[in-house]
Write a structure and sequence with these properties.
The chain contains five helices and no strands. The chain is mostly helical. It holds the Pfam family DctQ.
């Protein structure tokens, strides 16, 4: 179990770094959006590339930060059932739901996202909009983002199994408090 927990800590560290880096993309999107608005109003100039780069970066934030959101236990869930369960019951529900829903969904999105990326990469696919950007970076975000989410899902399973085996703390304990910050 200790080697699995070490793997979980490694996945958590990667997820935290990627998630925190992705959060900086929000600032970049805001700056590009504001710059685009200023240039459009002041100089009557605009480009589809400005809009598309905003979409690409927003997609990057969403896809790259999803694993970090899971790690921080901030995904939307139905707390009506969860709040009535013991910590062990919550851990079991989390394991079952991750195995039945999260991991297969991530696997399918990786399986279907990779060929889309490869097709865009090899064909040099461009946006159909005038002045648009190449498409492969946006398509690459799909398998990368869902691979990170899949890995973090495995990390969460490991932590919950360790908790159930009495070899780790409750991984969900204290994470519901938005003021508590965990430093990695």
């Amino acid at each position: 179990m200790q080697s699995l927990l070490a793997l979980s800590r490694l996945i958590d560290a990667i997820t935290a770094r990627v998630g925190k880096a992705a959060s900086w993309l929000v600032l970049i999107v805001v700056l590009i959006s504001a710059g685009n608005a200023v240039v459009r109003k002041a100089f009557n100039f605009s480009s589809n590339a400005f809009l598309e780069v905003q979409w690409y970066l927003f997609s990057a934030v969403f896809l790259l930060a999803a694993a970090y959101t899971l790690q921080k236990n901030e995904h939307i869930r139905i707390d009506l059932l969860n709040s009535k369960l013991s910590p062990r019951g919550r851990a079991i529900v989390d394991i079952v739901c991750t195995l039945l829903f999260l991991l297969p969904t991530c696997g399918l999105l990786i399986k279907f996202g990779w060929p889309m990326f490869m097709n865009a990469w090899t064909s040099g696919e461009m946006s159909s909009d005038a002045g648009g950007l190449i498409r492969w970076p946006a398509f690459l975000l799909i398998p990368v983002g869902f691979s990170l989410l899949l890995a973090q899902g495995c990390s969460e399973i490991i932590k919950r199994l360790a908790f159930l085996a009495g070899q780790g703390a409750d991984p969900a304990a204290g994470k519901a408090d938005p003021h508590q910050e965990e430093h990695v």
